[in-house]
Amino acid sequence: MQKSARLGLDIGSVSTKAVVTDEDGAILASSYLWTQGGPVPAVKEALRELREKLPRDVKIVCVGVTGSARRLIGAMLEADAVKNEITAHAAGTLSRYPDTRTILEIGGQDSKIILLDEGIVTDYAMNSLCAAGTGAFLSAQAKRLGMEIEELGAAALRSRRPSKIAARCSVFAESDMIHKAQTGHSREDLVAGLCRAVVLSFLNNVGKGKRIRGPVVFQGGVSKNIGVLSAFRAELAQEIHVDVNSHLMGAVGASILADSGKRRRAEFDFSVADIPFSTQAKECAGCANSCEVVSIHKDGELLDRFGARCGGA
Description:
The chain is built from nine helices and 13 strands. It has 313 residues and is α/β, with parallel strands linked by helices.
């Protein structure tokens, strides 16, 4: 007898996450890989990984997508649900921590705070153009210090006197780190200061004016950095929960939101990973906005077209 399951994808600018969940929300298989500027190839690779990991008796009955490339991938997979990141992250988190009041999320290029009351999103905010509070900034500084990104957290916890690093923006923070290094600060102290600067940047920008109430859940790729987690706990003076699958919560939420509870669709066919897809962009001439219109083709045939505010093409 086949088991019904749900496919969820979170396609970001830095990483692509995909999960298959059962009807109780448990993860049956997952994939996490770098987008590398190509959401379509990344999603295809993620689908191939899931196909290899899933038991043969699992049937995908609905598909949900979120993330910055959700419209493109939603068209490609003919998704049942295409949701924004706020909604998807809230749904994924509440499935694990139903009493959550605050979600802190830091990914590769963006960060966000989501406030909830009795399971309902009441407010949210996302980062501006500054990258000081994101995973990409941490990764860049790790490279400059000659360290792997995975080493930063443990190094931060070994620090005895964390360096005071400017948290106003990435340019000031990097300049401050260079200056501190040249005056003899250890790598451990620099990294600890960097982790605290990421937290302060987040709280002073994304979290500005927001009342952070517990239970608090921290997620996104940066939640795996124990140095940043420790800094958040110190600044907020409260416990912060990090799920073992914190980096997959957007995809989990997308899979949940795709499930309407009705008999949904024909079984999803993983062979879509082997079908050629292409995109074309052109400027719409329908009005003065001159929007970029993106067309996605499946095996040479037009599948969807989007981007024009006026409805033109």
